From TrEMBL:
PANTHER family (alphabetical): DISCO-INTERACTING PROTEIN 2, DISCO-INTERACTING PROTEIN 2 DIP2 -RELATED
Organism expressing this protein natively: Amycolatopsis xylanica
Taxonomy of the source species: Bacteria, Bacillati, Actinomycetota, Actinomycetes, Pseudonocardiales
One GO term of the biological process aspect: Actinobacterium-type cell wall biogenesis
Protein name: Acyl-CoA synthetase (AMP-forming)/AMP-acid ligase II
Entry superkingdom: Bacteria
Amino acid sequence: MTEHILAAFQRLRATDPDRRLFSFVDEKGQPEASLTVRELGDAADRVVEAVREWGFQPGDRAILVYPPSLDFVGAFLGCLAAGVLPVPVYPPNPFKLKKDLATFTAIVDNCGARGVLTNSFYDRSRTAGTVTSFFSKDAPSWPSLGWYRTDKKKTVSGPVTWHDPGLGDPAFLQYTSGSTATPKGVILTHGNLAHEVTANAADLGLGPDTRGVFWVPQYHDLGLISVICSTIAGNGRTTLMSPMTFLQRPSVWFDVMARVRATHTAAPNFAFELAVRKTTPAQRAAWDLGSLRVVMSAAEPIRPSTVDAFFTAFADTGLKREVFYPAYGLAETSVSVSMGGRAVLTVDKSSLESGKVVAAPDGVTYLGCGRITKPGAVRIVDPATGVPCREDEVGEIWVDSPTKGLGYWGMESGETFHARVDGEDGDYLRTGDLGFFHEDELFITGRLKDLIIVRGRNLYPSDIEDCVRDVHPLVRPGGVAAFAVDHEQGEQLVLFVETKQEKVTAADVDGIVEAVRRQVYDDHQLACHAVVVGKAGTVRKTTSGKVRRLACKQAFVSGEITSSPATIRVSVQQSVEA
């Protein structure tokens, strides 16, 4: 695809205007709204005319704050068509602004937004939340910025001329999830988007017969680019639902997929765990999922035990194991780097700690994340020297691809986006992720910034977290975070552990702490400097569900965690084992 998605959509608008592109279902999985090509084009026209009337100029940034809805799709396409750079964000809860507003304000300030686009439903909620906050002395306030409802305009005054961008022109800002730092706005061009949509179509087998069902967030790169933008470009028909619909009733996801005979879907690892826990054998027996061709898993580490449990539980649905499609990507590369993982590799734990990959019958098991999306190039590089690693050596993942963004908005990002491999020409993106190649397949081991280095051993927090997820019946599997803190005896390990229940006894907490310490020492020969036991919410996460280990560390070091109402106990070990 050498044309930008605006041109692809306009061609579709001229040739197949009555094709249904999007449907949206409610919390029960029932159809709530839909958009044909013609209807989406008309919605985008209204947004184009509206933003111009409101004073937006090409190149201005517009924050998009929408609840999950098709209004978001029309607003996003309309901004592109007006030459305005959309900035999709997680919609802050108007009644709990203390939790969400700091990130929202940081994004507004960073991108220099001209205004905020939203719909009437959210704007009314925002107004109600503002009124409620009058009764709170320390309530935060929204940034001083104009808010505009895109669903108020019902008609246009005449023919609307769309912006015709060059492939090198910025299309929108995609803010990172902020799992290791403050969110940064990646500048993605129309060319980045065109190449990504083309690669997705080839790698995932997308076409007019594709029927996708997705609940991944619309403001997240996977949901926005791989789902919404691919659909706008004509690669299939998509049914969307709110992430909350899935979280509250995972069965709705499968109800809808079975009803529409879905061919494609995607979700992070935790979703498959939740599906096993929150659906029943009777429900699964009623679902025919045999039409699925791709079940992508991305956005967080993929656990082999999760995959095994999921396909065992869903064995009677007609779902074939070979449709499971591990992938790896990040916002800085317009989502995808590799796709179609097939290999399962168990490696020696001691060798891995020294950066070597040695296959072993027992050790740490990884699922491959597939081969590199063409025409991209990936190198595994020693992050300290810039020298390429050999196959089966762990290093930082560096990527060069036509999907690589221009950099971070308003920030110096040359070191990240224009890294040089020793002895090679060309610029690479430093992903900050660690991994290795084995038989031409990419494996991810963790984040460079999250690496725990204790007495010369390189330990991955995800491996430590995995070993304690099921160590006690009261530990919430998705609520564990491991990180290191500086100590007079060197870096020491701290774990945050959430409980499944709000109320636990002192004996329960004793049991959790003892079980966690024992399991970590048995598996990793490592003492826990501290174990923090708390209620749900103790482990800091991004809006897309990734563990924010740096934020957890900051809460521990600052003492914030000690006074948190979610904290049940902070158990610090006074004498550290050698």
